[in-house]
Fold this protein.
Amino acid sequence: MSNIGDSIKSAADSAKEGLATAKAKTTETSAAAREKAAEAYEKGREAAARGVQQSREVAHNVAVKTGDGIDKNPLAIVLGGIALGAIVGALLPTTEREKKVMGKTGKKLNKKAKEMAKAAKIAGKQQVDSLGLNGDAMREQFRDLVSKAALAVKAAGEAATEAAKKKD
């Protein structure tokens, strides 16, 4: 019986050694995996931060260009604002109280305001067209801006993906 007992004890010891080795290997592998995941996360976070920074820079540049456009053409902006205000004012319906208080004077003012709005609209449109700020040019500038923003976002996403894929 001692041979059987010795065999059982030897098998138990081998099993304990195997379990200890497997446990150590598992602990080591999971620690390495956690470290790799943390590195990949950090690289992805850094790439995303760069993408955000690039997007902020693009937005800042757009704001500066818009401000420059307004600074270079303030008359067009003012005329557009005046024309818009006059058009909105002319389109608003008059109330009964206004009709009673203003009477014929109100009708004359309303007619004059409509004429002024029409003249301002025509002058503003001519000025905007002469400056190359017509609808087609504005649409083209907007398409260009959207295209550049899309490229920046795409580049940031690709950089984040590549950083996450890199194995150190």
